[in-house]
């Protein structure tokens, strides 16, 4: 009995250190679809771009991708996000990668820049080392995709890998609504 209690307390302590150390929130709920998209906040560095604001993106479709370069699930999702950027950027899709580190070595701007070069990421990436934008979105997952419509409202969310065809269909639909005369 005593060993089980000790093991449980150690597990709780490890979890608490992780959540305090990373800034992750254990019991936050992402904003509901239709909610205003939070502003990019607490960004320590913008890579591949000058600083962006959510407000300045009004009138565009914005895909926010929370990721980190050493997460295998994020790396599996990255080719789809990159392809959507390449395919739809000229039709009004803005892709913003929010790089939120899971481990201390992922906070290094040089390491993130090297990963962007190696992975062929050319769209804007916000380095969210302090979890400020992560917290503003009440995010809990790597990877996490949020689509923000032309009015600045979250209209679609997907957490983890998969649903690529569904996500692309939503992108196409929202771009068609934004540009009714332009084929997607």
Topology (elements, then pairings):
Elements: H1 2-22, E1 45-47, E2 61-67, H2 72-88, E3 93-99, H3 109-119, E4 125-127, H4 132-136, E5 144-148, E6 154-159, H5 164-178
What's the overall average pLDDT, rounded? 88
Which spans of ≥5 residues are poorly predicted at pLDDT below 50? 15-27
Counted by DSSP, the helix tally is 5
The biggest sheet amounts to: 6 strands, mixed
Return the structural class.
Answer: alpha/beta
Shape: globular
Helix-residue proportion: 25-40%
End-to-end separation: 62 Å
Strands side by side in the biggest sheet = 1-4-3-2-5-6
Give the SSE string.
HEEHEHEHEEH
> What's the alpha carbon Rg, rounded to whole Å?
18 Å
> What percentage of amino acids are in beta strands?
15-25%
Number of strands: 6
Summarize this, please?
The chain is α/β, with parallel strands linked by helices. Helices cover 38% and strands 17% of the residues.
């Amino acid at each position: 009995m005593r060993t089980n209690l000790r093991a449980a307390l150690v597990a709780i302590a490890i979890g608490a250190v992780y959540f305090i150390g990373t800034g992750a929130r254990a019991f936050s709920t992402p904003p509901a679809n239709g909610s205003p998209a939070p502003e990019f906040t607490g960004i320590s560095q913008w890579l591949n771009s000058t600083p962006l604001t959510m407000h300045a993106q009004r009138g565009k479709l914005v895909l926010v991708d929370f990721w980190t370069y050493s997460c295998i699930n994020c790396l599996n999702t990255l080719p789809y996000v990159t392809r959507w950027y390449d395919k739809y950027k000229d039709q009004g899709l803005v892709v913003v990668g929010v790089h939120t580190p899971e481990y201390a070595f992922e906070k290094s701007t040089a390491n993130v820049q090297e990963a962007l070069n190696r992975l062929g990421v050319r769209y804007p990436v916000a380095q969210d080392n302090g979890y400020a934008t992560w917290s503003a979105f009440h995010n809990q997952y790597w990877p996490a995709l949020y689509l923000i419509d032309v009015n600045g409202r979250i209209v679609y969310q997907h957490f983890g890998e998969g649903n690529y065809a569904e996500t692309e269909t939503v992108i196409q639909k929202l771009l068609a609504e934004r540009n009714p005369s332009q084929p997607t």
